[in-house]
Fold:
Amino acid sequence: MSTLTALARAQARAGGEAQPLALVRHLHIAERPLVFIPLALAGEANAPLAAMIGDEADSPRLLVVNQPRNRDERFAFAAELARVVVPYLEGFATQAEDVASGGGETRPRFRYAPQVFMPSRASIGFARLLGRSTRFRRTDGEYAVDAAVPVLGRWLSFLAERAEHPGSCLLVAATEVLSLHWASGQSGLEDLNLAALMAWIEPPGGLTCLQAAAAAEDPLQWPPAGPATDPGFDNEVLAPLIDAYGRADGAAALQRAEAALARALSAQLLPTWGLMWRSIALLRALPAGGHVGKRWDEDRAAFTSYVSYLRDGDGLPQPRRDGAVAAARRLSWLERAQASYAAQRAFDDPLAMAEFRMSGEAFAGRVVAAEPDRLDTSGRRRTLRPRITVETTDPLTVETGTELRAVTRLTQRATIVSVEPGGPGEPIRVVIELAGGMGRSLVAEPGTVPETGEWLCYCSLPLGYQPVTDFPATNETPWTHGGPPVPALPADEDAVEDWS
Amino acid sequence: MYRRAVASSPEALEQRIDELRAAIRHAATAGDRARARELRAQLRAAESDWDSAVAALERQSAGAAAQQVSAAPAGGPLLPVREQVHQALTLVGVAAAPRLIVAVHDAFFSGPLIAARLTSLRRDEERSFRSAPYARAYYLTAALTADLLAPARGLLAVSTWPLERRVIGPLSPRVDYLTAAIAVASSVRRLPVTSADADRLLWRFAVNIPGAQPGGRRADPETVARAACAELDVHAAQDQAHRQAAAARARAQLDDAGQLFGSRLQAAGGAMSASS
Amino acid sequence: MSHTEARLDQMRGAVPPRPHNARTIAALTSNPGCVRRAILDAAGVDKPKLAAAAGFPAPFGQSRFAITRGNAFEAQVKANGCAELLRLLREQLGLPVPEVSYDDLEEVAASRSLQLRHSRTRQLLTRAAGSGTDAGTLFDHPLLALEVGGRLAYLEPDLIAFRLRGQFHVVEIKSFAAIDGQADSGKVAAAAIQSAVYVLALRQLLADVGGAGLVADEVFLICPENFSNQPMAARLDVRKELTVLRRQLSRLDFIAELVEAFPPGISFDLEADDAGVPRRPAAELADALAMLPARYMPECLASCEVCRFCRNEAQATTAALGRTVREDLGGVEYVDTALGLASGDLEPDLDTEDAAAILQTAARMRAESLGAAG
Structure:
């Protein structure tokens, strides 16, 4: 949130339509994403009710739990879901290529990776819980579940964990990613309603955004995207249908009851299904940002890593809680990843860069003077160190000595030599010394030094990779942090968990 | 991997399974993958042996059960609800709520007992008594609160029980719970075939009584009964005193219907007085 | 009856006031600056009905499944003299084995009269406060009361108060799950503040016998563990919530002043005809509502039944876009004002000078960046 995005919202409100917050798309869109929309039964911890899932807009697959409180039916649902999700995911674990991994070595990485779209963070939360509730299940013994179920659980947990990483897009929340690229004319809270948010971005034919957003709040026209269902639907439609299913005796009656439930739940899910594919299309239509490919590489690497862990490793499911070292490492990683993601977006997208121009960490302006031949004679050897003077009206706060990069000249190092504020209403003059990206000699190759009149945008955020902070190995966790964590084995208590 | 020549009992196998699990965790923590793998294979074998051992036991008793079933009355209409409730209450021997009554019935008696049918039972029984007192062999009654001799919320009792058993003092809910646990434990012991419902019911008691907690997969009736007795000793005397005092008051103040179904307040406001 | 009460009754019309419960009292702590809500709540107006009659029905409802599940879990925890709860209290608090005494206050001799239950509750709890160890451990469905804005509100919680080593603890049973020891923080926060309401009420009840200090600041939240029905207990320290509540409740005493500010004829009477349709036209009710100043923000959509009306009223404000948006726009009240300052079409005054400068910079940068795309 910032003045820029607030202003965009205000403009959207006044103008009656969404305003762009990005000029490029900041995530990779897979050729064949999987859309997954779960619905949950109200009042329970994580009781699946139904789901619509598929990798083609024309062929949604509907899964229904006829008796959502029945444990066996829940696990049957999980097994059925697994039979859709796991083959989709593992289908990408085929073509591998070798990529450099430092020190002259290579390691394999799959060329393609899966991408799962869910309506919102709440939906992702449901998937995370579903993963947690299934990954420890035993496939034998008294409370056995289908073998596919714990595999599904591990995958869901992996995806949900990746979704916490800034810049990762293996598992995406539609409302979140849409809000990154467009500002609606309503509040952030109202944006959590996918239909309302889409109403502002692309209203259905014939309606203004305001009209469409108002209609989007009517659950009869636009059922909620889940996992929560509309209480009215629960009370009026769902409860009687579930009762009827429970009372049905005879195959014919059972079949009828099942069909009725399927129809009702399908009707609750189809509108959201349509919205999800429309939102994917909207995002796909934007050109990809420069660093999107690099982040997708990291996603592919994580996917590859997890596939090999499942195949070759213990196959132990993720522990219930992070050990202390893992938690600290993760937090540090997340902070760095967030900063790096923000910097990459800024370099990819003038609108994102504008945030840093507002905060003073970046500035843009025109070159008013240049010394392309300047040499630095202070050291043992003479080096080429041109200087340029840039005039800007941006509220910059960076100081002398700060290192910068220009968006259009990423390989060139720039350092601030001096900052001279102009008088009131006058631009600031920044003198910058350049190094690198100009060839090997003491004469710069043509075009490598900015010329007078050129418009440049310099940013002080580092783009490069930061070294990992040193943490003790997992099995040396100090006793103050609980000692070495015990690896997570499926415990009996998980297998016998008493479902309501 | 070797085959064990002698089939072990389920209890012995359960112990082996526990040991193997502990060993696997140790091996995994120590990073000894090979050992962990080897142990897992043994664990799988032990679990499969357990399945076979339990199945064998069930086959043995299935023979006995088959005879039992044929000796039972021929299938006809289900018992009326009041009979089913009477059966369950007689087994536990204490005033109980519909939830417990249904659980006990499901565990030990055949035929479904639908909880919804119990909601109007007390009212129906009272009406039946008032219209023709003592016409039936027994009535399903309320339990009376010791302080106001009013019908205790949600509890059913049997008219043929002494009044002391049908009054509820402040310690009585707990005392009755422990008494019911003992009754259920002894019924489980007498079952010819293990019943999942009965086991589950016993387990629920065991979890909530200190010292009765099951060590393995099933609750042990002896342990549960012993633990319940131990706690009962703590409360029994005081509870009895409350109940006796309350029963005496009830006999003095209430008529027959009142002693069975409790007294209700007549009018709002003012002193609370028992009515008949 | 005080003058204020008389005016509030007249505002509401000839229907009994909607009773407060812990949730509505707790809700007073959010958006304390909204006069409209304060007065409607104080007068006990039926807000959902009012909102609908004014043309802006409320989007709230409760799913049967959630209710059923909540009731079932509560029943399970309390079954058999609170057997499961006793286990938790013994294991986690060392409740001594002899202390199992259970008193059911949901009915008094089969009557559910509020006054009866309240006086019986008072009787039992004050006796427990005064005496030694054998005067009661668990008190199921006690009926408490709290003075709110000059009116006595009966609180009918599903709580159980229990007594341990002379201290009374409030127990709240909720059916949202704690997975791996963590529950939804919003729900836990809501439970904490509701429990604080009960703590206050319990203290008020015992104050007469000097027992207010016997009520602990720590409450117990009982909820299902992981994905099962097994209950687990968590301690909640509600001192912070108590402070906030006490402050808010004392502010409500100024309702009298607020009420005086309004014309005597103002009324929200929803008297209906035979078909159940309120006699007064929507426009009239809307006008009456509009006379009470409101303080709409998007959070109202989750907590107050009149929200849609207020949102419609506030559609030109920056507050409707969210608190942080409004702050980021320099605290300027109206969207058009912010845009005017940003474009330079509007001259700032002394207060808005700084905001205007920032807004203009932001507008310039957005325009530049969007232009750069071309």
Remarks:
- Chain A has two domains: 3-318, 349-459.
